[in-house]
Amino acid sequence: MSKASFEAKRQVIDEIKSKIAESKSVVFINYQGINVEQDTKLRKSFRDRNVDYKIYKNRLIKIALDELGIKDYDSTHLEGTTSVAFSKDEVAAANVLFEAKKDVKCLEAKFGVVAGETVDSAKIEELSKIPSREVLISKLLFMLNYPASSLARVINEIAKKGA
């Protein structure tokens, strides 16, 4: 292996490590069988949710995981085609993957790393069912605002009848 080739691989490994360290969740995906149109749509969905989606060589992913001390995953998951979704929140990558999986049956979560812990595909699917942070915040704000708005409506109706 030439020095330039080694340096290029080292840069990719460092990039993977950096992205994992900066992410709250990372999902490793088997994308075998996806066509170009489906891939383009999937990439757009990830971009729309601020999820970084990349394809790396399995060997480089394995080296990066090993160097980060992440060893409690099934090494057979790093065989075949592997893409990686890096998310700054815990559920966005899983949400996008399982939403896309409705149309693209061949997509499959291999495993993930969430908040520094390795999780299996079943946990990734569980995460996909949790609403996004924005949705949860809007629901909370609605619930907090509901009593005050209800009281205002009641007072308004009393004022109309009293006048």
Can you tell me about this structure?
The protein is α+β, with helices and mostly antiparallel strands and 163 residues long. The protein folds into two domains: 3-130, Ribosomal protein L10, N-terminal RNA-binding domain (Alpha-Beta Plaits); 131-163. It is built from six helices and five strands. The protein has a five-stranded antiparallel β-sheet. A hairpin with a 2-residue loop joins strand 4 and strand 5. The radius of gyration is 22 Å and the shape is elongated. The N and C termini lie far apart (89 Å).
Summarize the model shown:
The chain has 163 residues and is of the alpha+beta class. The chain is 55% helix and 17% strand.
